[in-house]
């Protein structure tokens, strides 16, 4: 590793991004090119991919490499030439470390795309420059709008097949911005690229002198992180995963013995915000208020904790706290409610019908619920919500959800992590839908 990898103001940060797009738009090829040109491929892996590529007749501008083979790991993916499951890859540059989720483009795998985009700082949506904005493009952009993904990048791919025509790129960019404006996505970055050749992927291309923006990698290296953005505006939340209460003899250094004599802490991952020792917090359910006396992280005492750290909190008072409880900054939790309006990304082949009994998982709390009413389904051509009496697999719809117990539910617009939930089948435990809270009501 050269010294340059240790330089730069963003060195050490972890950036999560996903790719999405319609079938054959070149997602896996783009990811492979990104990994290859950023020198993130091991020599033996590159040799194996080069041999397989040669057997398939690849050559020319690709240097004899089928870049999609660098990410499509399943045998079925290689044989069919499609991406089926989300492929996660880790790589690093001189400025940042990345976790990349290469998502499938087929309509039947939209649920995989939702999975990859949920925790992403940014999503790169590919569009074939020859085809323009398609229904699946609208579907993916609708998902990103509902998930409030902070950064959306549209890569207009295969621009080389159109002779690097600026007019063709401008037409696609105009259509993209019309759709994203209607969806309320805000600022969207549009980049002309050729995943196969490498134009504007890692380095800026001389073939597109009319484009004066950054390459894809340059943009990914400089965009702000979700946690950096949200920690400044969102209140502290920690869903309790485990109560730590050491039993029996604990072997520790003598100077630390006092910490574990009557040790009790509440462990979980910080969902949002920042917490410091001495801060006042509220616990739900129960509504008890207390003060944070200690924050532990892997045996080390911290002065503060922030998302997405996993920590254990020590509190001044002994409150009735168990898994599923939420520890929050004092005075910031909303009143508990039993009913909410939600957008649902239906992921299961079994349809949703009004009256369905399900389990709902908010953070670490799982409770019984019923869906008494389906209020609509998003039309991906017009982007409007139309009347519907149920949801089918890959539908994006709206529904009323009624809970068996009241929870301090927040809207997704107010808190991206606390306002999201899963819908689970009560018998077999499979995930039926991903949901986000649009409105809360029915105060208990």
TrEMBL record:
It comes from Cryobacterium tagatosivorans. SUPFAM superfamilies: EF-Tu/eEF-1alpha/eIF2-gamma C-terminal domain, P-loop containing nucleoside triphosphate hydrolases, Translation proteins. Its EC number is 2.7.7.4. Keywords: ATP-binding, GTP-binding, Nucleotide-binding, Nucleotidyltransferase, Transferase. It is an enzyme of class 2 (transferase). It holds the Pfam family GTP-eEF1A_C. InterPro entries: CysN_GTP-bd, CysN_NoDQ_III, G_TR_CS, GTP-eEF1A_C, P-loop_NTPase, SO4_adenylTrfase_lsu, T_Tr_GTP-bd_dom, TRAFAC_GTPase_members. GO terms for biological process: sulfur compound metabolic process. This is sulfate adenylyltransferase. GO terms for molecular function: ATP binding; GTP binding; GTPase activity; sulfate adenylyltransferase (ATP) activity. CDD domains: CysN_ATPS, CysN_NoDQ_III.
């Amino acid at each position: 590793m050269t010294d340059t990898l240790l330089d730069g103001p963003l060195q050490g940060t972890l950036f999560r991004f996903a790719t999405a797009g319609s079938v054959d738009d070149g997602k896996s090829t783009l990811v492979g090119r990104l990994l290859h040109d950023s020198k993130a491929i091991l020599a033996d892996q590159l040799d194996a991919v080069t041999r397989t590529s040669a057997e398939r007749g690849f050559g020319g501008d690709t240097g004899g490499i089928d870049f999609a083979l660098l990410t499509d790991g399943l045998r079925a993916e290689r044989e069919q030439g499609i991406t089926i499951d989300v492929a996660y890859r880790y790589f690093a540059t001189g400025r940042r470390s990345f976790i990349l989720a290469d998502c499938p483009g087929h309509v039947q795998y939209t649920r995989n795309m939702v999975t990859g985009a949920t925790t992403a700082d940014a999503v790169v949506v590919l569009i074939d420059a020859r085809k323009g904005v398609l229904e699946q493009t609208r579907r993916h952009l609708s998902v990103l709008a509902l998930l409030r993904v902070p950064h959306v990048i549209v890569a207009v791919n295969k621009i080389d097949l159109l002779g690097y025509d600026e007019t063709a790129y401008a037409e696609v960019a105009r259509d993209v911005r019309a759709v994203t404006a209607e969806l309320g996505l805000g600022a969207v970055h549009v980049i002309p690229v050729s995943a196969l050749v490498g134009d504007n992927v890692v380095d800026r291309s001389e073939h597109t002198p009319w484009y004066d923006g950054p390459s894809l990698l340059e943009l990914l290296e400089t965009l702000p992180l979700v946690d950096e953005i949200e920690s400044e505006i969102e209140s502290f939340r920690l869903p309790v995963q485990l109560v730590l209460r050491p039993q029996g003899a604990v072997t520790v250094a003598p100077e630390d013995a006092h910490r574990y004599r009557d040790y009790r802490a509440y462990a979980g991952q910080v969902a949002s915000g920042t917490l410091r020792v001495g801060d006042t917090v509220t616990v739900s359910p129960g509504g008890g208020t207390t003060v944070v006396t200690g924050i532990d992280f892997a045996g080390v005492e911290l002065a503060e904790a922030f998302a997405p750290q996993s920590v254990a909190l020590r509190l001044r008072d002994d409150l009735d706290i168990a898994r599923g409880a939420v520890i929050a900054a004092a005075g910031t939790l909303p009143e508990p409610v039993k009913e909410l309006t939600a957008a649902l990304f239906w992921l299961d082949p079994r349809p949703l019908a009004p009256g369905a009994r399900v389990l709902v998982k908010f953070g670490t709390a799982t409770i019984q619920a019923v869906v008494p009413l389906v209020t609509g389904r998003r039309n991906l051509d017009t982007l409007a919500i139309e009347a519907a009496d149920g949801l089918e697999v890959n539908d994006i719809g709206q529904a009323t959800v009624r809970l068996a117990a009241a929870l301090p539910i927040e809207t997704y617009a107010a808190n991206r992590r606390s306002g999201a939930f899963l819908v689970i089948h009560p018998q077999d435990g499979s995930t039926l839908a991903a949901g986000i809270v649009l409105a809360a009501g029915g105060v208990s």
